[in-house]
Every structure is written in C-alpha cells, then in structure tokens.
C-alpha cells in the first residue's frame, strides 16, 4: 500500500525551528476503519499546538506532520527502541492510547511490514524535512535551535503519577543543547510563580530532541511539553481556551524571542553541554 504524504513546512528567516510532531489528525481511511472507538476518538492529539505557537516568533521555521500519532509517532525512535525503558509508553506505531487501552479492533493491528511501510511513508519524510531545515538554518546563521513543541493531558495515570506540571522541559539531562538555552527556557517559565515548571523529569526529550540535539555541531534541541489545562479544555471536544492560552503564549513568546536574540548574538556558537 502506498500513502500520499507531505510534511507541512514554513521556512523562516531565524535560527529557531519549531517542530510539531503530534498536532495532526489525518488518518488514512484504510487505517481509520481498523481503529476501534477508542482509536477513533484521537484523544492523545496535541490539540491546537499550532494555534498555541502561531505568531509567537514570526520568522521561525515551522515543520508539522498532518498525520495522527496513532498512525505513526514521529517522535519515536524509528528502530522502535524505547525512550523510557522500564516505564509505560507508546510505540512507533501505537497499539494503545495513553490510558493503556487498545486502539485497534481485534486482529486489525499493523504487521511488522506495515509498520515499516508507515515509517518510510510518514516518519522518514517528516525527519528529512527537519534535517534539511536545520542544515539550511545552520548554514545561514552558524547555529540552529530546534524547539520541539508538545502538549499532553494533565492527568494520565498510565504514564505518570499525579497532575503534570504546566511546563515540562527536556534536554536529555543537558545533553541536547547549550546550558544557556535550558536556562533561558526555565527562567522564562518560572517567572510565573503560579505555575509549576520541571526540567528533565518524566519528559526528558523525545527522539527528535535527542537525535538532533548535538551542540558540538551547532545544532541545539530542547523539548517543551505543556500540560493542556494551560490553554484548553481537557475533554472532548477539546476546545481551545483563549484566556488561558494567552497567558501561556506570553511565556512561550518570551522563551522564543530570547532564544532567537541570543542565537543571533552568537551566544550558542561553539557551545558545549558542560555545566
């Protein structure tokens, strides 16, 4: 089976590249018909992620995939290696939702051959687009900062205990970016004393952040996982909440504008991860 797919690419004029792997809701009909009602609910979408970040940094490049994460998770290791060994998580082609419930009708799960086909059709083009854009940006500015945009429901017992903090920053324990990039991100979030921020806790950065974040090459990466209560209603029909979102957007805008200014000033050039 051959799928038609193209990542959505907005090329900007900034050292900042925004990646959005989980905001898409497209599901090929041949896969949709095999989902059960849990799968067809698409509950684990990063709902409104593009709207949340839209216009915060006008010159930033943006790369999205329109394909839903239940078809293939563009932020998982293409080899299928778990990012969080020993912890509950979902796979390259998920078989369950974030609550551990099956998303396929009995006997309709993808075979190994189909998983590989989806990888080449959906996962590979998205990451080819990211790699090309990061290289273009690095050639122009001498540095590139990949900012991986995510959101998730605040309470998912299958994945983590308790209520998730609003801002969850991941740099794979400082390995994927210059210390200043993490510092700027953390300080901007903690400027709002009414919301909780954590660094490299449950979410340390997915495959995208870990794969591209190589500060010694001039490419830095950091992941932001935002609890969805900070900008939307966390139940179907998953409505956007403008008043909440505006406050959250102000924090995100502060992060991105500071990262861009420091990148253009050369602060991240030849940076290492030493602390």
From TrEMBL:
Which InterPro entries does its entry note?
Answer: HutG_amidohyd (IPR010247), N-FG_amidohydro (IPR007709)
Superkingdom is Bacteria
According to UniProt, the name of this protein is Formiminoglutamase
Query: What organism is recorded for this protein?
Result: Pseudovibrio ascidiaceicola
């Amino acid at each position: 089976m051959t799928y038609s797919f193209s990542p959505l690419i907005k090329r900007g004029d900034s050292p900042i590249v925004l990646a959005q792997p989980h905001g898409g809701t497209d599901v090929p009909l041949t896969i949709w018909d095999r989902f059960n009602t849990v799968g067809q609910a698409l509950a684990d979408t990063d709902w409104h992620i593009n709207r949340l970040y839209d216009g915060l940094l006008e010159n930033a490049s943006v790369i999205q995939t329109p394909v839903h994460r239940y078809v293939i998770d563009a932020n998982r290791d293409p080899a299928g290696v778990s990012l969080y060994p020993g912890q509950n998580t979902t796979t390259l082609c998920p078989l369950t939702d974030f609550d551990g419930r099956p998303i396929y009708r009995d006997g309709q799960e993808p075979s190994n051959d189909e998983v590989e086909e989806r990888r080449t059709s959906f996962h590979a083009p998205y990451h080819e687009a990211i790699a090309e854009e990061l290289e273009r940006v690095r050639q122009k500015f001498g540095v590139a900062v990949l900012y991986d945009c995510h959101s998730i429901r605040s309470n998912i017992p299958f994945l983590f205990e308790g209520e998730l903090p609003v801002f969850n920053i991941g740099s794979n324990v400082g390995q994927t970016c210059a210390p200043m990039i993490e510092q700027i991100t953390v300080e901007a979030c903690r400027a709002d004393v009414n919301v909780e921020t954590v660094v490299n806790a449950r979410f340390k950065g997915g495959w995208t952040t870990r794969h591209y974040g190589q500060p010694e090459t001039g490419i830095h990466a950091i992941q932001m996982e935002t609890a969805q209560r900070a900008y939307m209603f966390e139940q179907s029909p998953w409505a956007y909440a403008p008043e909440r979102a505006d406050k959250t957007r102000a924090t995100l805008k502060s992060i991105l504008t500071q990262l861009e200014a420091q990148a253009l000033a050369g602060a991240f050039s030849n940076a290492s991860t030493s602390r």
